[in-house]
């Protein structure tokens, strides 16, 4: 926490869409009269083919759990992102694509976007894809990824994007869970001058996915690949043959739009389901108000489309608003540590949205790579994904933004679809590290562990939301029971976020991190259960327990306690094998930092592993370990403490 504040400048507030008084007025209306408020926003941001009957119809109760926004209304997402802009901005650049190599740039106008999307939509139709069918995307950050998302929405297919850094195993389980019939991928992806063999990975995955009859392959890297006749087709061949006309499907507001897998406390990753109308309203409205986006701005979000930030804030929000959105294929350190800032100058980026982990790693490279660029075009900066530490905030503000750009620290989740708590750039005197206040329509509460609402300020507790917002998760794909149990069972009547938060004396919110068994590694969510399951696949592992610990660069690191089989002694060789097993099962983002050989794990008498104790050992807070008397074998703790690894 930092007690410095950075006052909003009068100049910025005067030109902003929303200033302090307007926020107060709009927020009050969004809570006191949500029907009228959201009806107004829905008409302002989205074009509907048919109006709705009810703005919102909902219940968080177990027997009747449902969230419906803009009931019975009809719309189409690709129509909103493309067609309706054609008359006024057909020649305007919709996507600025910046390749891995600085020589590779492509500008795509709204008119070209329309053609590309219609053609690909027709290819999907020819391959038998119908409204409601699921299509899996396993793609590099190339324009075709956006075309594919929009082509799905055009015909009412439901996309499920799997981040290109995930392993074949992870891809396969996601394809199977959502029963996809088509996969769209590329031969290789290019990142930092290196190639990732996406198609080869997909080939491995598809061995266990009998539901997939078509694999559409974009040529990107150009290296040779294996080919399965009948199943595999080249993207460019098929698109070249397809018609450029494709009527957008009339979708119901509550028809599924996409599935995106994310990690939770228990079990395998779950398919978070988002639907059409409410999601799009929230995406567009938050993109415009949170970033103070104005017509003509160049906007850049550095996320990957494999994550929710890429869905909402590279594609759906900006394109619904007719913006120019930058899509970057590469990484911040290639060809050198100056790349982000060079791209900002090259394309005159006005709004820049990235993750604290990227800021920290660039900060570690010093100011020189930054100072050789101008960045004078920047007006608003944003962060997302994890709490930002005050040093990184200061550096972002002073060195990157030259002290003149407000920073919006946006707290939200895959499940929330769009921003939930964030400063607005024309509204707040900023407090580094604070997500400040709820977005419109969001009604947060802090609950104690018994589920009682904690009133007054300051306060701290479990962060929950007491009513639905338009972009809210509508289900866990194929598993209604898990939907209720994951989000609504812990505190009946509330959506539970899994995060803890503090409210300061002024009523501003500070997210303190996950209170469940979800880790946040470089802004990527990983469940401890998934990592433990991967470790358990190794034949020499009897048992494993995983916790997080604070890590300077990645926010959190992975600390694994592993019990080898048959009381054997662990070796460095086995450590390396285990690290490789987890990487293979989940993907390179799941990098185990520390393995401690553990002859036993602390368990309750009923056999439940007490992670609270393991967390304390990992973070070297032995003195505040709390009561260990309920353990089946208290002595295992002494052994773990004696052999803890330095973090
Ligand atoms: C964390 C990413 C602090 C939080 C959009 C949340 C944050 C999880 C912030 C969701 C922030 C996200 N400050 N923590 N500004 N933004 N988080 O689903 O723990 O990948 O629950 O969505 O990231 O991660 P997810």
Automatic annotation (TrEMBL):
Statement: the UniProt record of this protein carries the keyword Magnesium: yes
Identification of the protein by name: Acetyl-coenzyme A synthetase
Top EC class for this record: ligase
Species per Swiss-Prot/TrEMBL record: Leucothrix arctica
The keyword Cytoplasm appears for this protein: no
Gene Ontology CC: one annotated term: cytosol
Location of the Acetyl-coenzyme A synthetase N-terminal domain: 23-81
Cofactor(s) essential for the protein: Mg(2+)
Coiled-coil parts of chain: none
Ligand binding (ATP): 385-387, 409-414, 499, 514, 525
Reaction(s) this enzyme catalyzes, per UniProt: acetate + ATP + CoA = acetyl-CoA + AMP + diphosphate
Sequence similarity: Belongs to the ATP-dependent AMP-binding enzyme family.
Any one GO molecular-function label of the UniProt entry: metal ion binding
NCBIfam families, A to Z: Ac_CoA_lig_AcsA (TIGR02188), PRK00174.1 (NF001208)
Keywords: Acetylation, ATP-binding, Ligase, Magnesium, Metal-binding, Nucleotide-binding
Residues annotated for Mg(2+) binding in this entry: 538, 541
């Amino acid at each position: 926490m930092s007690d410095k504040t950075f006052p909003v400048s009068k100049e910025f507030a005067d030109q902003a869409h929303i200033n302090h008084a307007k926020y107060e007025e709009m927020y009050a209306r969004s809570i006191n009269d949500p029907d009228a408020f959201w009806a107004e926003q829905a008409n302002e941001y989205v074009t509907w083919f048919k109006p709705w009957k009810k703005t919102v119809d909902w219940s968080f109760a177990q027997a009747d759990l449902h969230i419906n926004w803009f009931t019975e209304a009809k719309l189409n997402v690709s129509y909103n992102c493309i067609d309706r802009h054609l008359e006024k901005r057909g020649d305007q650049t919709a996507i600025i694509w910046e390749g891995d190599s600085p020589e590779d740039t492509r500008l795509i106008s709204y008119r070209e976007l329309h053609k590309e999307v219609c053609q690909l939509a027709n290819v999907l139709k020819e391959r038998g894809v119908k409204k409601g069918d699921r299509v899996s995307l396993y793609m590099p950050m190339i324009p075709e990824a956006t075309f594919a998302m929009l082509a799905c929405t055009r015909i009412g297919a439901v996309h499920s994007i799997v981040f290109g850094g995930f392993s074949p195993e992870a891809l396969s389980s996601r394809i199977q869970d959502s029963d996809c019939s088509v996969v769209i991928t590329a031969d290789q992806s290019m990142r930092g001058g290196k190639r990732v063999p996406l198609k080869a990975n997909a080939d491995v995955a598809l061995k266990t996915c009998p539901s997939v009859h078509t694999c559409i392959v974009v040529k990107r890297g150009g290296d040779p690949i294996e080919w399965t006749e009948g199943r595999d087709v080249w993207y460019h061949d098929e698109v070249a043959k397809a018609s450029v006309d494709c009527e957008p499907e009339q979708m119901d507001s509550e028809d599924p739009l996409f599935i995106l897998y994310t990690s939770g406390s228990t079990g395998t990753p779950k398919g978070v389901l988002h639907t059409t109308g409410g999601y799009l309203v929230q995406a567009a409205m938050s993109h415009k108000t949170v970033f103070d986006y104005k017509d003509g701005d160049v906007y850049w979000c550095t996320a990957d489309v494999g994550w929710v930030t890429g869905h909402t804030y590279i594609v759906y929000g900006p394109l619904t608003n007719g913006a120019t959105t930058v899509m970057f294929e590469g990484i911040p350190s290639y060809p050198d540590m100056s790349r982000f800032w060079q791209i900002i100058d090259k394309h005159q980026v006005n709004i820049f949205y990235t993750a604290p982990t990227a800021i920290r790693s660039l900060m570690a490279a010093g100011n020189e790579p930054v100072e050789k660029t101008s960045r004078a075009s920047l007006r608003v900066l944003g962060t997302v994904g994890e709490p930002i530490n005050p040093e990184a905030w200061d550096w972002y503000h002073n060195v990157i933004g030259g002290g003149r750009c407000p920073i919006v620290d946006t707290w939200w989740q895959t499940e929330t679809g769009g921003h939930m708590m964030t400063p607005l750039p024309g509204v707040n005197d900023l407090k580094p590290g604070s997500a400040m206040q709820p977005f419109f329509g969001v009604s947060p509460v802090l609950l104690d562990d018994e589920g009682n609402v904690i009133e007054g300020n300051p306060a701290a507790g479990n962060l929950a939301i007491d009513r639905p917002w338009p972009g809210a998760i509508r289900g866990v794909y194929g598993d209604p029971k898990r939907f209720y149990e994951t989000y609504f069972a812990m505190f009946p009547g509330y959506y539970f976020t899994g995060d803890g938060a503090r409210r300061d004396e002024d009523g501003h919110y500070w997210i303190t991190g996950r209170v469940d068994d979800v880790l946040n590694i470089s802004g990527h969510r990983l469940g401890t259960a998934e990592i433990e399951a991967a470790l358990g696949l190794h034949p020499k592992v009897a048992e494993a327990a995983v916790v997080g610990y604070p890590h300077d660069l990645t926010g959190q690191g992975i600390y694994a306690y592993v019990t080898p089989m048959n009381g054997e002694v662990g070796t460095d060789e086995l450590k390396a094998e285990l690290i490789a097993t987890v990487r293979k099962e989940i993907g390179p983002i799941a990098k185990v930092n520390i393995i401690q050989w553990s002859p036993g794990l602390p368990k309750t008498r009923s056999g439940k592993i007490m992670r609270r104790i393991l967390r304390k050992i990992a973070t070297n807070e032995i003195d505040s370990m709390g009561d260990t008397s309920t353990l089946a074998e208290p002595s295992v703790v002494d052994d773990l403490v004696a052999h803890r690894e330095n973090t």
